[in-house]
């Protein structure tokens, strides 16, 4: 889950990044509205958090601009102002949710999880592919009914694949989902995660499409010939 934060309060942005990364989000951060639009033009995040008071523009103006091109991108507004009018205006302009500063990190996380669940079409917190199950509430992996311990990034990789069944995800796309811009990524990082996951799950579950990327596939079972 890639998150873009637009917030000019650096200490707040840093603590948000740290906390949210710890909860499995790849978090990128920009300080201005114009930087946010540039970032969006490069790569669309899965969700956004926008502060209302930005140095170069108003968060509501930015929200309206973004809504014109991406009506379905989940956006949570942050604000120091806590008036009913601001809240109503923000929601009218297309924000999915709204949080007043100061806020509790657990509350922000809960709101983000709700937006995340809305993203998956079924609204079901458990995603399944064959014998593989991902509980997105608990961030737990089960395979053939057994719990499987995964690292945070292994979990994110599986989640990216299970959300796009049948589609091949390129290494670059997966890197974007798993790592923030400022994180060092070794050239074989994704391969290493896949290697570890194959050892924990069925070898054939994650298929390599040579020169393209990865996809989930049902492992071939040896069924006796009729
Ligand atoms: Ca601000």
Description:
The chain has 226 residues and is α/β, with parallel strands linked by helices. It contains eight helices and twelve strands. It has a five-stranded parallel sheet, with helices on both faces. Strands 6-7-8-9 form a four-stranded antiparallel sheet, covered by helices on one side. Helix 6 crosses helix 8. The radius of gyration is 19 Å and the shape is elongated. The protein starts with a strand and ends in a 10-residue tail after the last strand. The model has no long low-confidence stretch (mean pLDDT 89). Bound molecules: calcium ion. Calcium ion binds next to loops.
What does this entry show, briefly?
40% of the residues lie in helices and 22% in strands. It is α/β, with parallel strands linked by helices and 226 residues long.
